[in-house]
Amino acid sequence: LAKTTQPISMDSYEGQEVNITCSHNNIATNDYITWYQQFPSQGPRFIIQGYKTKVTNEVASLFIPADRKSSTLSLPRVSLSDTAVYYCLVGDLAAGNKLTFGGGTRVLVKP
Amino acid sequence: DAMVIQNPRYQVTQFGKPVTLSCSQTLNHNVMYWYQQKSSQAPKLLFHYYDKDFNNEADTPDNFQSRRPNTSFCFLDIRSPGLGDAAMYLCATGPLAGDQYEQFFGPGTRLTVL
User: What confidence tens digit (pLDDT) does each residue in A54-91 have?
Assistant: First the structure.
């Protein structure tokens, strides 16, 4: 399973865009990149998933360069309620569907 | 609403006293997972079921066992809890495969060992 590296923490302010970059240098051909969000005392929640280029949904965008060795989660116009830990995961969707959580990035949104 | 339910939300047990945590799902997913999450750490996969096929992680202690009597239910048994087993235990489900793969997590059971 590909190992991921993320910043331990990031601070931001309400209304700003937050970009979290994840490194996954040994990503395999069949691996997808998935991001989860976790609030204290809750289970992680799926945010977005992609394979290459750019993926956008109602809550975030995911940018994946051509070499796929890194990815960037972009949260537009964050609010206080976006304060959480964000995990980047890399794995093959078909190979037993096992995902390994890395260290995660603790995002603190300030007023 | 379809969801993943964990009971109880908080469990207190004594050192060495067996404890069982339960998880149920209404999503009809084939795959169910158990994770252990200690304070300020990432979730760590203990094992998962691929239908009835049990898959144990290599570093999961023998003290942790699991049962899946049917598609909807999965149990985590800790045979002799130690102080180091105090953690949040998360159950998750997922489909076998698909264009997008998402694990759906329950709220977790916080286990305290006295």
Answer: 999 999 999 999 999 999 999 999 999 999 999 999 88
Task: Kindly provide the residue ranges of all beta strands, DSSP E only, lying in A14-111, ordered along the sequence.
Answer: 18-23, 31-38, 45-50, 53-56, 61-64, 70-75, 84-92, 105-110
| A-B Cβ pairs (cutoff 8 Å, strict) | 60
Query: Taking CB atoms and an 8 Å limit, are B48 and A46 in contact across chains?
Result: no
**Taking a C-beta distance cutoff of 8 angstroms, is the pair A18, A12 a contact?**
yes
* Whether A41 and B108 lie within 8 Å, measured CB to CB: yes
Distances (CA, A) of B94 to A17, A54, B34, B106: 31, 24, 12, 12
Report how far residue B94's alpha carbon sits from residue B23's, in angstroms, rounded to the nearest whole number. Answer: 13
**Which of B30, B100, B110 is most worth mutating to test chain A (most A CB atoms within 10 A of its CB)?**
B100
- Kindly tell me if the per-residue pLDDT of A101 is higher than 90: no
Nearest-by-CA chain B residue for A105:
B42
Range with lowest mean pLDDT among A39-53, B5-19, B94-108: B94-108
